[in-house]
Amino acid sequence: MILRRLAARPVLLAAGLLVALALPWLIYPPVAMDMVCWALFAVAVDLLLGFTGLLSFGHAAFWGSSAYLTGLIALHSGLPFPVAVLGGALAAAVLAVPIGWLSVRRTGIYFAMVTLAFAQLVYFVANQWRGLTGGENGLQGIPRDFFGVDLSDPFFFYYAGLPIAVLGLWFAWRVVRSPFGRVLVAVRDNPARARALGYPVDRYKLLAFVLSAGLSGLAGGLFTMGHGFVSLEEVYWTTSGQVVMMVVLGGIGTLWGGVLGAVLIVELGDYLSTAGFEETGIVTGTVFALTVLVFRRGIWGTAAWLTAGRRERAADGATVPVGERENGEPVRA
Amino acid sequence: MAAVLRARGLAKEFRGFRAVDDVDLDVPEGGVHALVGPNGAGKTTLFNLLTGFLRPTAGRVTFGEHELSGRPPERIARLGVARSFQITSLFAQLTAREHVELALQGGTGLGWRFWRSDKRLGRFGDRARDLLAQVRLADLADTRAGALSYGHKRALELALALALDPKVLLLDEPTAGMGAEDVDATVELIGRVRDGRTVVLVEHNMNVVASLADKVTVLQSGRVLAEGPYAEIRRDPRVVAAYLGDADATD
Q1: What's the mean pLDDT in B60-80?
Q2: Does any CB of chain B come closer than 8 Å to the CB of residue A4?
Q3: What's the half-sphere exposure (Cβ side, CA atoms, 13 Å) at A270?
Q4: Distance between the two ends of chain B, CA-based, in angstroms?
Q5: Domain ABC transporter: where (chain B) (predicted)?
Q6: Do residue A195 and residue B101 have CB atoms under 8 angstroms apart?
Q7: Strand-strand pairing, B198-202 and B32-36
């Protein structure tokens, strides 16, 4: 597996951290913060899509509800910003319990549609409950309190927020490389067999869903802190779509691929809007279509495939049709 | 002999087609009970009813004092009724050793520990090696299931069911598609693991049935056609007409 190879290469890990630390010197710091948040979000979604086999099309519900709650905590409590972010993440995880409970019984396109429906419900509530969320105006002027330290400069805030995202990424890695993660892969590849071995498949899916939602909430809360405001866009379905696109571009089931996908999409969006091109959707959409059509393993998956030994590649290739059965879900590389 | 697994009036209907029709089954404790019958007789459907993968249209299944009908497959597996699958059903991305570890960890609750390292599964290493050696897969422990040959996949299928250490072991055509040498090894293995447990076997190979089964139930069109020891069954004219005649001819 890719992860096993990564563990054997601390060099890659060190390089990744180095790039993360250098990022606000290389690009506009708020954009760097966006990249980090979306990267964590993409990894959280891959935990579900790549390692549990569930394509959620409603993760904006968790990213967005945490964005609002984090904003509200920061606005009204004056607590340090990491506490607000954690509060938001926790709320997203709690919200994921009923939504997940009702969704995980479905697979494939039905699961995607049910999660989308719930996300639209959250959007509706956020839009209607103006007293709390500000409706179309959103929440403005969210402070970044941190024991009196001045974090108003995005450059410094980047370094304050980065550890939270890194902790989130580490957590995702821990989940994938745990006894639980092993069961998830089994559930993804062959749910009936997992049940015959005594594993209550739906409950495992539910826990994966809740963990994924909590991490998405962590990302959404951090995003709120990075911007100082929350808009309705955070709970809109395009947010759910964007993050899936990042995962697919980076490589489903590769965990770190989502980081690459997020960095590229955010950078592309920023480049286009700086150049005055408003219809970024056309470009990202084209990139997405090309990824799905031409290199389905995504960036990370393709790189891993190219560097893998021949034997491993043969074994991998043999499994592709298996992963594709029943739900038509994409397979991991 | 007391029946450990018992079915009464068991029926399964698929859109008007009765795949299993009013079947009574008593699986005696400690024996090897073979289910035979022509294709489409309802053997696999019966297996799925016994293990919770299908809900019966009518009738009930009991295992000792436990009512099994209506329970999900994972609960039935935990109670001690394990099964293998006719069509090889493995986890393509996991290695043979990881498969067995997964089966061994099932009863421990370790599967929920998402905050722990998967190195903890190393505690099952010895037992996993032992089981893989039993099915002659010791050398392939670190090969991914997707890359195993058909015969090896069948062997792993058996190791998985054994890893659950079940009281009742249901094997759905354990020798299907195997070469003669592997068939002998599998028969020998089943003969060894039957000690202390009950084995229910769906099998087409009559030599396997002859050498293992204490009791044979012949199914035809979802109903029990005949039941008894193999020697008796193979002389039963109804059975010969329905099934054995053909099988003997092709063997």
Answers
A1: 90
A2: no
A3: 15
A4: 33
A5: 5-246
A6: no
A7: parallel
A202 and chain B in contact, CB less than 8 A: no
Q: Is A229 among the domain residues?
A: yes
Which structure tokens are listed for A158? 């980047």
- Chain A residues in contact with B111 (beta carbon < 8 A): 179-180, 182-183, 199, 204
Instruction: Indicate yes or no: CB of B114 within 8 angstroms of CB of A332.
Output: no
pTM of the model: 0.86
Highest-scoring range by mean pLDDT, A192-201, B110-119, B242-251:
A192-201
Q: Using CA atoms, how far apart are residues B54 and B40, in angstroms rounded to an integer? A: 16
- CATH of residue A94: 1.10.3470
pLDDT of residue B1: 58
Interface-testing mutation among A52, A178, A325, with chain B (most B C-beta atoms within 10 A): A178
Chain B residues touching residue A195 (CB < 8 angstroms) = 53, 72-74, 77
Name the nearest CA neighbour of A153 among A258, A226, A244, A229.
A226
Rounded distance, CA A193 to CA B84, Å? 9
* Encoded tokens for A88: 């938001």
Going by pLDDT thresholds of 50, 70 and 90, the confidence category of residue B191 is: confident
What share of chain A has pLDDT > 70, as a percent?
A: 90
- Stretches in chain A below the pLDDT threshold 50: 317-333
User: Is B43 in contact with B202 (CB distance < 8 Å)?
Assistant: yes
Give the structural domain span for A226: 2-328
pLDDT tens digits, one per residue of B19-67: 888 889 999 888 899 998 888 888 889 989 999 999 999 999 999 888 8
**Is B106–A196 a contact, with Cβ atoms under 8 angstroms apart?**
no
What domains, with CATH codes, occur in chain B?
3-80+166-250 (3.40.50.300)
Distance separating alpha carbons of residues A252 and A301, to the nearest angstrom: 8
How near does any CA of chain B get to the CA of A83, in Å? 21
Which of A1, A182, A319 has the CB atom closest to B92's CB atom?
A319
* Chain A residues within 8 A of B94 when measuring between CB atoms: 182, 185-186, 189
Chosen for mutation from A193, A252, A316 (greatest number of chain B CBs closer than 10 Å) is A193
Provide the pLDDT for residue A312.
60
What pLDDT is recorded for position A314? 56
Q: Are A179 and B102 in contact (CB under 8 A)?
A: no
Q: What pLDDT does B243 receive?
A: 63
A with B: how many residue pairs have Cβ under 8 Å apart?
119
Sheet with B17-28: strands ordered across: B17-28, B3-14, B58-63, B66-67
Cβ of A207 within 8 Å of Cβ of B120? The answer is: no
Q: A222, A151 in Cβ contact below 8 A?
A: no
The answer to whether residue A333 sits within a structural domain is no
Picking from B53, B105, B107, the nearest residue to A179 by CB comes out as B105
Domain count, chain A: 1
Rounded alpha-carbon distances, angstroms, from residue A4 to A7, A10, A271, B235: 5, 11, 35, 59
